[in-house]
Amino acid sequence: MHMNTPSRSTIRLTRRGRIALIAAGAVVAGTAVAVPLLSLGEDEEAKPTSLVIPEGWRASQVYEAIDKALTLPPGSTKKSLGKLDLKLPNDADGNPEGYLFPATYPLERAGKKATPDSLLSAMVDAANQKFSGAPIAAGAQRNAMNLYQAVTIASIVQAEADTKADMGKVARVIYNRLERGMPLQMDSTVNYALNRRTLRTSDTDTRIESPYNSYQRMGLPPTPIANPGEDAMRAAINPAAGDWLYFVTVKPGDTRFTADYSEHQRNVADFTKAQRKASPKPTK
Predict the structure, then answer these.
(1) Is a pLDDT exceeding 90 seen at residue 199?
(2) If you write DSSP's letter for every residue of the chain in order, what string do you get?
(3) pLDDT, tens digit, for every residue of 148-170?
(4) Buried b (16+ CB within 10 A) or exposed e, 172-197
(5) What's the pTM value of the predicted model, to 2 decimals?
(6) Whether the Cβ atoms of residue 170 and residue 233 lie closer than 8 Å to each other
(7) Sequence-distant (≥ 6) Cβ neighbours of residue 174 within 8 angstroms
(8) How does pLDDT run across 264-273, given as a tens digit for each residue?
(9) Backbone angles phi, psi at 264, to 5 degrees
(10) Taking a C-beta distance cutoff of 8 angstroms, is the pair 146, 152 a contact?
């Protein structure tokens, strides 16, 4: 069934909030603590021993982090991609976005120092191990998706959900919109196209010409927009039950989902009020 949507100039339809904060601390696979980018010993001058990839980082951020961890010239890791034989799905067409699994990776193993090749290969291997199991594949099929599409949905969920508890609901909004022939209208995909790490989006932004512009293009973006963790992947294959089509994060911890556009407008009005209260008053 197709459903007409209100004008984009009226309101953003699905978003976490214009100036929602992106958490700097990342929950690393296998641990429950936030860790810095590079794990250092007691001596701050000591060389890092491991590299932490947070959930939701884009491939470009991973490349930069590898360059920094291995003290390589900026751009070295990205330049090496063409020479690597990463075990990516055919749909990825050589692009590892979505398959650089968030975790902690040692910079030396069995006396051998890590290289861009070894680190990227380890990340892709970890993603394949996490994502290619029977439960994940069956979950994707249950939702009429292939595995790569499920990873793409998980990447949007990772970028859009304000909390872990919201992930299943965000995934359901995505599926509901796809099933109704509605554009996803996710700010996160637009900002991926603009290479920005924010969820601020203007009307001008939503008119850019890009296959990642989910305001103008129907369906999923052509690739994942980030590297999702296990929680986002589980949400993508097991979305919460609901008829929601819209959501907005009024303030941290208060994301409101609804199937009614009028109710969504009221929620957005509450968001606007909350932002006005939170904004510092101009000094005289």
Answers:
(1) no
(2) -------TTT--SB-S-TTPPPPSS-BPTT-SSB--SEE--SSTTSPP-EEE--TT--HHHHHHHHHHHTTPPTTHHHHHGGG------GGGTT--TT-S--SEEESEETTEEP-HHHHHHHHHHHHHHHHSSHHHHHHHHHTT--HHHHHHHHHHHHHH-SSGGGHHHHHHHHHHHHHTT----BHHHHHHHTT-SS----TTGGG---TT-TTTS-SS-SS-SS---HHHHHHHHSPPS----EEEEEETTEEEEES-HHHHHHHHHHHHHHHHHHSPPPP-
(3) 999 999 999 999 999 999 999 99
(4) bbbbbbbeeebbbbbbbbbbbbeeee
(5) 0.83
(6) no
(7) 153, 156, 157, 184, 186, 239
(8) 999 989 988 8
(9) -60, -40
(10) no
Residue in the structure block whose two tokens are 């208060």: 254
- Which residues, listed in sequence order, are joined to residue 101 by a DSSP beta bridge? none
Amino acid sitting at position 53:
I
